[in-house]
Amino acid sequence: MIFHDLISAVLNEREPFHNIWFAGDFHTPPEFSYQVNFPRLELVLDGEYINEMESHDRKVTHIVAKKGDAIFIPPNCWNKPDWDTDC
């Protein structure tokens, strides 16, 4: 399936987002995390997407994003995905 078809299918389903998480940048990013100077939006289309990230109250936490959830990572903020699960 090409990217255009995937995005079109998601938009046509019109399934609302259940949770939207926002990453922070107060703490030093852990080893093997992703930190870039542009914003990112990660959408979970299927399965679970486990991440370590800084929450709005400046605590490092693990979140489990499921189908219909989104994670927004502003510029220079970080997240650390756990690639041991299907998403």
Automatic annotation (TrEMBL):
Database matches in SUPFAM superfamilies: RmlC-like cupins (SSF51182)
Source organism superkingdom: Bacteria
Cited InterPro entries: RmlC_Cupin_sf (IPR011051)
Name this protein carries in UniProt: AraC family transcriptional regulator
Organism lineage string: Bacteria, Pseudomonadati, Pseudomonadota, Gammaproteobacteria, Vibrionales
